[in-house]
Design brief:
The chain is an alpha/beta fold and 174 residues long. Helices cover 22% and strands 16% of the residues. The strands form two sheets. A four-stranded mixed beta sheet has the order 4-5-6-7. A three-stranded parallel beta sheet has the order 1-2-3. The radius of gyration is 16 Å and the shape is globular.
Length: 174
């Protein structure tokens, strides 16, 4: 995490997005995540969507989830959207594999001609949403869970689909 913060401080991004799984399922805590989140800063904000680890290990009671992220300086996008700047909208979806995606809710109020950036965790959902957005940022595969260099991964988590790492293009979306 220290190296990530060093890189972000050097690059000074306009916006930071986290596509889930910042919670370590084996002994990691939300308080440890909060320490990291509090170090993230960008002019257009820090935005977060749940991954399978957050869905499988939820904040209790559920009504405190948004409050937790806000207290760390992070905006939770849960089947919702925000206009980052004029004409550029970010749409955040619940994890398509372990959560509940509500596309109508997530896209409510987003103009048809806007530039749309979708954030979600499990990349296989790209096939379902590509025709509705311009850019997708997803996570989950980590470039292959079990992998020997130059050989296709032995295993990818459910919800990865055909996506491993890098850039893909489908129906005009990247």
């Amino acid at each position: 995490e220290r190296r990530v913060i060093e890189i972000l401080d050097a690059e000074q991004p306009d916006v930071i997005v986290v596509t889930g799984d910042s919670l370590a399922g084996y002994g990691g805590t939300y308080e440890e995540c909060k320490e990291f989140y509090e170090k993230l800063h960008a002019p257009y904000g820090v935005w977060f969507v749940r991954g399978n680890w957050e869905t499988d290990h939820p904040i209790r009671p559920a009504r405190r989830e948004r409050e937790f992220y806000e207290s760390a300086g992070v905006h939770l996008l849960l089947n919702s959207n925000v206009e980052l700047r004029r004409g550029i909208w970010m749409i955040g979806l619940d994890d398509p594999t372990t959560g509940t995606v509500r596309l109508d809710t997530a896209f409510a109020g987003v103009p048809a001609n806007a530039y749309k950036i979708a954030l979600f965790h499990s990349p296989a959902f790209f096939d379902h949403i590509a025709s509705r957005v311009n850019l997708v940022l997803a996570g989950h595969t980590h470039g292959g869970q079990i992998r020997i260099p130059f050989i296709h991964p032995f295993w990818l988590p459910n919800g990865s689909g055909r996506y491993l790492e890098g850039w893909y293009e489908e129906a005009g979306a990247k």
